[in-house]
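User: For documentation purposes, I need each entry recorded in a consistent format: the amino acid sequence on its own, followed directly by the corresponding structure tokens. There are two entries in this batch. Please keep commentary to a minimum and don't merge the entries.

Assistant: Recorded as requested. Entry 1:
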Amino acid sequence: MPHRSVVSAFAVLALAGTIPASQSASAAPAGGRPVYVTNSAMEFGGVPPGGPPSVARFASSPAGALTPHGTVPAGDRVRGLVFTPDLRFAYTANASGSVSLYKVGPDGALTPNGAEPAPGAFGIAISPSGHHLYVGNVAGRDITVFGVQPNGSLLPAGTFDTGDEFVKGVAVTPDGRFLYVSHGRPDDTVARDLTGFALGANGLPVSQVASERHGISGAEAVITPDGRYVYVVCQASDEVFGYRIEPNGALTSLFGAGSGVAAGDFPEGAGISPDGRRLYVAAGGVVGPGGTPGQVLGFTIATDGTLTQNITPVTMTDPIGIGFAPDGRHVYVSDFWENLVNAFAVGASGDLILVDTEPSQGSRPAFDSVTVLPNKGPVAAFSARPAPAGYPTTFNASGSTDADGRVVRYDWSFGDGTVLRDGGPAPRHVYGAPGTYAVRVTVRADEGCPTTPVSTGQVASCAGPAAAPAARIITIT
């Protein structure tokens, strides 16, 4: 039975009832973290789209609930959304043959900022440094590389052949050294390759380092935040394939050559939790009379990269895009056929608990259609009022800021061997002798990001570290 076939009104209503729409659990506060859904507006199965292509923005509450904040125009058949690490610019891939450019406002609002040609644009990824953008050609076998300029514009840097047809998933390792590409179309009948390339300083490949046969119709490819493993879901063979990334970029199968793990019916989307412990797969199912609803399946990732499906699956009509909040406590999943996005809380065991269901503010959210605005990280700053030796010198780091959260901890080093952990923003310290001292404060933000950026292949979820230092020299008389 074909996937996403034309359905009767009765069948659509029956499947839609698997997860009832819910009211928001609580209103998103001002400045709630933005969640984006790209609405492709594809005509599918003879059913016209419900509006033009768009990028929808939502604000997420601390409980994960979503509040719609409207849409901006997008290119035809838009897929994917990535941000520069400074969160000033964003880019989408449009299968009609272009990349759309956006400016990002302080509240996460997007403003269209032009477009650049990119044949068959489908999979999209940005290097962790933010210097290069990679766009795969789903109608061919090449990737277009752009240099990202300081003003957000894109400078074509060249194209390269990936070694197989129908480029689908594009993923860059967290250290920016390697790029991996999955290949396939939904109607494929033969297995294709996951190819890998070592990248040079100019963003272009210097050599091909891997070519491993994955299943039939490779779709989204994702990489663990430690850069050790890459996984690709395959639509037509209903599997997820996994590989260990060797130091030179070569790939070693985790399940035996040519072998994968069952991943539901017609899996297309994938997401890895920011802590790297779990992989979630969006399997679209078979839509139509006598068909089966889709599922979001969860796997625990072992230290050796192998997968165990020990997380309760969640039923949806046609899940496809998966996006994690930076702290990993919530995940958002789009539904292609129902034109909606589900918000889930992630339980301690990895189980997904439905928090909210909202219309996607457009039609047909497709491949890689959910992105959460990355965490930017705090900025540390402090002042000092030196006092003579034997008297308390006062410090004040209350001017430290976190643009998308709040500073929750201040760790101090006073330069005389004294360390004060979690000492608050305004400690006092008595120096025993005159002299010059190097004082340092490290501030930490509230969103659970580690001290280094976190990326799972396409865009960083933690674009800036959760901790930031500031230092200055003081003189005690």
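Entry 2:
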Amino acid sequence: MPRYVIERDIPEIGSAEREDLRGAAQKSNSVLNAMQAEQKKIQWEHSYVAGDKTFCIYLADNVTLIEEHAERSGFPATKVTEVRKMIDPVTAEN
């Protein structure tokens, strides 16, 4: 499945309390479970919270599923970018 980076503009998310983040994760998981029950292939890997944004890493069959999740969950998908390649320190080695 393709991997996507989803940039979400969410004011003050960086100062959100743990309980608020837990609630957001529960909401996202609930929508993902419903979509998967509908045989839609989409999976949340993890997210980074920074300032007024989150950067979420998802696997999905297509960008339409990412957009559907954003609409159903109420979490904006401000920018969605498909990951084409990954590099890390090991990439420098032979």
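Summary note for entry 2:
The helical segments are 18-37, 63-73.
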